[in-house]
Write a structure and sequence with these properties.
Blueprint lengths: L1 H20 L3 H25 L1 H8 E9 L2 E4 L1 H8 L7 E10 L5 E13 L5 E14 L5 E5 L1
Parallel strand pairs: 1-6
Antiparallel strand pairs: 1-2, 3-4, 4-5, 5-6
Helix pairs in contact: 2-3, 3-4
Length: 147
């Protein structure tokens, strides 16, 4: 009987510790804020230093881009794809962010606009919706794994 009570107390202790490890709402909101700030820095860098610099800086090593119905897999393939993407005309802002309760994955979505000249030099503005998946890195920073 004593061993059954001891086992029950051990199980309750483990369950209690596990429940204490779940993040509270404040922690999740902090993570969401981190992701939003990262998304804003990403957009600002694209506008100030160009798309190629920003995408390479914020991409994880195993990031994937979906462009023109093709998957560009990995940071080196992204670098090759973006080599001539010096444009500073891409702007975006997230409308939504959510973070997994584990604190290691997040996603955002929102609207973007891309201003670029046509063959005559006239500016064309393309608008759309973006969706990005973020993963926390071992140093605590966020890098995108899907865009």
């Amino acid at each position: 009987m004593k061993s059954l009570i001891a086992l029950s107390l051990c199980i309750l202790s483990i369950i209690s510790c596990h429940q204490d490890m779940k993040p509270n709402k404040e922690q999740i909101e902090l993570w969401k804020q981190e992701v939003l700030e990262t998304e804003h820095r990403f957009s600002e860098m694209a506008q100030s230093e160009g798309m190629n610099e920003a995408f390479l800086y914020f991409a994880s090593d195993d990031a994937i881009l979906l462009r023109n119905e093709k998957l560009i897999k990995g940071k080196s393939a992204i670098a090759e794809y973006m080599v001539d993407s010096n444009s500073k005309g891409l702007k975006w802002s997230p409308d939504f962010v959510d973070v997994a309760s584990s604190g290691d994955l997040a996603y955002t979505y929102g609207t973007y606009s891309y201003t670029h000249p046509d063959t005559t030099g006239k500016d064309i503005i393309t608008k759309g919706i973006f969706h990005t998946v973020w993963r926390r890195q071992s140093n605590g920073s966020w890098k995108f794994v899907w865009d």
